[in-house]
Amino acid sequence: MPELPEVETTRRGLQPHLENQAIHAVIVRHPRLRWPVPIQLATLLPGKRILNIQRRGKYLLFDTEAGYLLLHLGMSGSLRVVPAITPPGPHDHFDLVLANGLAMRLRDPRRFGAVLWAGSDPFAHPLLAHLGMEPMTAAFTAEKFFRATRSRSAPIKQVLMDSHLVVGVGNIYANEALFAAGINPKTQAKRLSLTRTQRLIAAVNSTLARAIRAGGSSLRDFVKTDGEPGYFQLEYAVYGRTNAPCRDCGQPIKHIRQGQRSTFYCAVCQK
Description:
- The relative contact order is 0.15.
- Strand 3 (59-64) and strand 4 form a beta hairpin.
- A four-stranded antiparallel beta sheet has the order 1-6-7-5. A four-stranded antiparallel beta sheet has the order 2-3-4-8, covered by helices on one side. Strands 9-10 form a two-stranded antiparallel ribbon.
- It has helices at 4-18, 41-44, 142-148, 156-160, 171-181, 194-213, and strands at 23-28, 50-56, 59-64, 67-72, 78-83, 92-98, 102-107, 114-119, 254-258, 261-265.
- The protein is of the alpha+beta class.
- The chain folds into two domains: 4-124, MutM-like, N-terminal (N-terminal domain of MutM-like DNA repair proteins), CATH 3.20.190.10; 142-265, Orthogonal Bundle (Helicase, Ruva Protein, domain 3).
- 23% of the residues lie in helices and 22% in strands.
- It has six helices and ten strands; from the N terminus they run H-E-H-E-E-E-E-E-E-E-H-H-H-H-E-E.
């Protein structure tokens, strides 16, 4: 599933093509994605400009003159900017056609993505209202995270992936950030000291920033808005590297399951 770096990479790729552009038409080829695509989009959006594109966690928010369009890439989705006359493929389910002849096209083979209408207050939408702290912002502090985890006995990796506490840190980047911070993913969240929590927050922010600079990770379906892959997977320290030598100490990377997800770590470097 695309995580925060992939969604942020997508947002940045869309901005120069979509912001301040007028919408000409909405084309829905498959109305049933994770939830039904609202039928009113075809009448609400044509003739309206896209004012800006924001991101909240793994959600994209298109601020238009009519209100907010909310998109989620789901398990396999990607957004591309193409000439509007480009013939659609079998998994191209939604187009936002612009007056300048381009189109933003949602490709989603598994159809777990979402195209929804959030109205005038997107942050009150049920999908966004209860989201936690946003990494790489002033709201994401070690002190807040430390206080929020004092009663959490679950492993720190699972807590780090709880979107009610912090958003956008999926499985890949939780693994990588914990390695960068030198913290064993099995450690109970409440056992982390404030000093180690500070190290973890810094590692989360730096890992996500590095991934964004690399264009995200292209595993399975994700590509950027120009159709090119991201390259952060070439920099993984632990994710997917079972039994490969640790890049720091040379010991084999271990693989376990936590909460139905794969966890990768170095037992020597992560305590």
